[in-house]
Amino acid sequence: MAGIQGLDCPHSSDTNISTVGALDSSLSFPFSVKFSPLVTGPWNHARLHLSSLPNPDPRIRVLVADAVAMSCRLLADALQRSRRFEADAAVTSNQVLEYLSHKSYGVLLIGTSFGQDANEGFRFLREVQEMQQGIATVVLLDSTDRAQVVEAFRSGAHGVFCRSDSFQSLCKCIQCVRDGQVWASSVELQFVIDALVDPEPKESQSLANSRPLSKREEEIARLVAEGLSNRQISQRLGLSEHTIKNYLFRIFEKLGVATRVELALYAVRRGLRPPLKNAPPPAPIA
């Protein structure tokens, strides 16, 4: 650093631009560096221009949500120490909702342990995403389980991450989903593809023994099949969102389904969803 002490420094055959440039190539500066030779009389001068630059890649704000308190806080601390992330830890569903109501996060890492089983955890995930739309969500899984991988993506997750993978992989996963990409292994993607092409999903087999819905419940099921959110349904029917959630809970329980996708499939199969407006008539059979 002794060769870069002033903005203007005369050079001779022993000290020249290439020498200073060599220093620049071996050092890392928190600002932009530009050398420009100036000729003033018999002397050649090198002028060092420094201009402060804003951080082009600010830290990603991450909320780690996991009911297992120790692993949740350890993971948040590790992300915070990496200096690439700003992380908070939430170990209860109330803490998750409180953090989301006061801060805006780029990525949510969430476990499936909120509730008595994984299905309740995925229901909570959908509720969280309705609360803060646009947040990239990664579901933390204990193992690569087919049903949970498929359900995670059906619930709106942007990625799934197995806890046995490395911390470096997790950091890359967070960066990718924040940039709008999907994070999943080839095996996990195959699970999703298989679920899409399965003509008779396993989860629909329980519908044969389901209890009938009331008129109001059928109406809500139809609106869910049309793609409306809880808030939109409440506005359409003049009910509170809390009432809509209670209706959906009873509907899920009656039909033995766990997701809005399954409920939408039920509504379509039962003819609850009206035909599309202005749809062309069916082609005649030759």
Radius of gyration: 28 Å
Q: How many beta strands in the DSSP annotation? A: 8
Question: What can be said about the biggest beta sheet?
Answer: 5 strands, parallel
Q: Approximately how much beta-strand content do the residues carry?
A: 15-25%
Structural class: alpha/beta
Order of helices and strands: EHEEEHEHEHEHEHHHHHH
The overall pLDDT average reads 75
* Uncertain parts: 1-55, 199-207, 275-286
Shape: globular
Span between N and C termini? 86 Å
Q: Looking across the biggest beta sheet, what order are the strands in? A: 5-4-6-7-8
Task: Describe the protein.
The structure is a single chain. The protein is α/β, with parallel strands linked by helices and 286 residues long. Helix 5 packs across helix 7 (186-197), helix 8 packs across helix 11 (260-269) and helix 9 (230-237) crosses helix 10 (241-255). Residues 1-55, 199-207 and 275-286 have low confidence and may be disordered. It has a 5-stranded parallel β-sheet with strand order 5-4-6-7-8, sandwiched between helices. Strands 1-3-2 form a 3-stranded antiparallel β-sheet, with helices on one face. Helix 4 (118-131) links the parallel strand 6 and strand 7 (136-141). The chain has helices at 17-26, 69-81, 93-102, 118-131, 146-154, 167-178, 186-197, 215-225, 230-237, 241-255, 260-269; strands spanning 8-10, 31-40, 43-52, 60-65, 85-90, 107-111, 136-141, 159-162.
